Amino acid sequence: MTDSPEPTIDPRSALRELAMDLSIRWDAGNDGIWRAIDEELWEMTRNPCLVLSASSPERLEATVSGAAFRRTIATLASARHARDTAATWFQTRHGDGPLRHVAYFCMEYMLSESLPIYSGGLGNVAGDQLAAANDLGVPVTAVGLLWQHGYFRQEITAAGEQQALYPVNDTHHMPICPLYRPDGSIVRLPIHLPGVTLWIRAWEAKVGRNRLLLLDTNDPANPPQIRLITSELYGGDSESRIRQEIILGIGGWRLLREVGIVPDVLHLNEGHAAFAVLERARDHVREHKVPFEVALAATRAGNVFTTHTPVEAGFDRFAPELVAKYLRRYAEQELHLPLPALLALGRRHAEDVDEPFNMAWLATRCSGGVNAVSELHGDTSRRIFTDLFPRWPEAEVPVGHVTNGIHVPTWISRAARPLWEKALGADAWRAMPEPADVRGDADLSGTSDAELWAMRNQARGTLVEFARTHVARSIAIRGASIEQMEAARHLFDPQVLTLGFARRFATYKRPNLLLADPGRLLRILNDPERPVQLMIAGKAHPADRKGQAMVQEWAEFVRLPEARGRVAFLADYDMRVARHLVQGVDVWVNTPRRPWEASGTSGMKVLANGGLNLSQLDGWWAEAYAADVGWGIGDGQEHGPEWDAADAAQLYDLLESEVVPEFYARDGEGLPRAWLARIRTSMSRLTAHFSSDRTVREYLERYYLPAAVRVRADAARDPVLLSERLRKTEGLAANWHDIRFLGTSVRTTGGVHRVAVALCAGAVDPASLRVELYANPRDGAAPEIVPLQRQPGSRDMRELHYFADVPADRPADHYTARVVPALADTAVPLEAPQILWAR
Ligand SMILES: *Cc1c(COP(=O)(O)O)cnc(C)c1O
């Protein structure tokens, strides 16, 4: 829309609309309008809504009346309009496909500093996927909670202790609006908890064409206890957690219904929102007057569950009594499901009355697709989920993976943006090309080494400025001396190799691995020829004592006289601190204990900015690492804490012998050629692949589209047919123990094993069985699975005969016969997990 007509828009309402659209990434290229209104407030908060409401009418009037300002607003408004109306990748590619709408549920969203309803990684994944879905035009409505206090804010005391603070999130200055009904009244939904009916309020935030709907319980009509349910993210006990999850899952789905959204796909980003599958089925119960089981069978295929934890302890679990207290009435009166049947959905063993209710099991039992968030996490998750698929080989446990990615336009620096624009076209980098379109280094070949290096120097300089201001402010708050403040203004050196380390201070992330040998670290930092500087940030959960001790360990190290000027702890790690760090650092360090980093995303944020990764071969880095793009720690195996010392030694070795020398090896023009080659390779090979564009495309093509096809077919199916299918599945489960192997024989002739198997199926219909031979994988390939044919003839169910011929290139005893379900329109083993082995 370059030929847009003379601006006829009202600048004030245009400003407000711009302020409210979370898909706009305000950076140094376009944030002039907010600077013009209130530079200081903008710098401090980057919250356009606050800048607007805090400016006096006179000030606003004076600014808005300037012709240049009005032209800028008109340009921004028409660019926004153009983005919101242009044909999108989704429309072009899948507009005629089966998918109409996705509902995306998550406990937290990291979309903007002005909407602090996130803690860290999970919110980052959700926010960046939402942003990418908008860029690609995938129709998504996200659902979350509006946290009155969000996650805690961190201050570090003079003694180096972490203080957790909970300032109130002021809804008036956040880019959200109450959700209105067509008649102008606000949306309020009643929901029952034991003994009370409470009110849920609803809000909406715009992410371009898509919306994020947020729920809270802070309604004046609610008792104080209830109003606080949506107070603190990841605070409180398991009782407050189950209440939050009921609001999110059940309340969230009801809200969609209330506003007329009927999604085909429900994507549960982590198990917190899994109750939504119940409410989705309940809609079906009411509409079609069918039992819950039939309704679940009709809707299940449309649910997608993404697991994010690498350990079973990471799943949300609730005591059965708590579930009974909160959901008995709901189960009995609304789902028409006896409580034990509901509890069974969240248990490994339905009949074990002591077993807690596991939200991940609920999500898995009620979804048509389950995935982990990196290739390695896929392996780890299949191991954890074997519990639900007993006796299935790990490789066949139905958990796939979609590796996370980050939204490049959100994390790109001002310095790096022109390079990508030159490589990919003015706005093209906003939707990253499909990885297949990126050919090696070719895409950055238009940028010289000198330009690349200038970009890095500029970005590092900006970070150093930011770090100085940030540290000065934090220590001023706690009453630092004039000398300390003065020292903060001279922290760091914009020419020095800069390492960044920022993450949640959880034990498995080993945030103090770099401190394993403080003397050695100090020698690395203070090398007179080739110095190194280090920026640290991260919060420890207020209930995590060990995590807080590690924060303190860093705070004490920072105060050592020998560390002065070279190390700082940047308090209150959040989106703002993260953005500055990932844009400016030369090397991003990550040292989790493998395989505990399910994916990790912070290291992906440095890619487009020309930062390099020096990380444990875990999560996404295990997938991305190659010797020419960065450095890997660990041996690619899993070890306990006894291995920490070895990892630390390797980390120091790499710094001393590779990272530092390569950074400081300059040629006649002052350029570190080897370093720049590495940056170039990392940027061009990895950026697009680890972007949330690729992630969203993958979800769409591998999960959403097939889910939409299946759920449409199921929902349209005659309930009688669905009940029949269900009866078959249940009958199979009930009679499975009837099945017995009677014998196996092998005859080997002419290079072929002829395997014959005799089976008694008891009450089970042989048509719903598949008999197979299974052999373990060879050379890392997939397991070998050979279906057997049923011998026609005998109708005697007490003795069925099957046979198969397999090439005799491995011994016959490598093969084991097994029986698995074979039911039409049923995913095996996800929806029918039975299996019987001949031995
Ligand atoms: C990206 C980001 C995370 C996720 O980081 P990982 O350490 O990779 O899990 C957490 N917190 C913030 C503030 C982030 O920006």
UniProtKB/TrEMBL annotation:
It comes from the Bacteria. Pfam families: DUF3417, Phosphorylase. PANTHER family: GLYCOGEN PHOSPHORYLASE. Keywords: Allosteric enzyme, Pyridoxal phosphate. One of its GO terms (molecular function) is glycogen phosphorylase activity. The gene is glgP. GO terms for biological process: carbohydrate metabolic process. The keyword Kinase does not apply. It catalyses: [(1->4)-alpha-D-glucosyl](n) + phosphate = [(1->4)-alpha-D-glucosyl](n-1) + alpha-D-glucose 1-phosphate. InterPro entries: Agluc_phsphrylas, Glyco_trans_35, Glycogen/Maltodextrin_Phosph, Glycogen_phosphorylase_DUF3417. Residues 14-115 form the DUF3417 domain. This is Alpha-glucan family phosphorylase. Belongs to the glycogen phosphorylase family. The modification N6-(pyridoxal phosphate)lysine is found at residue 605.
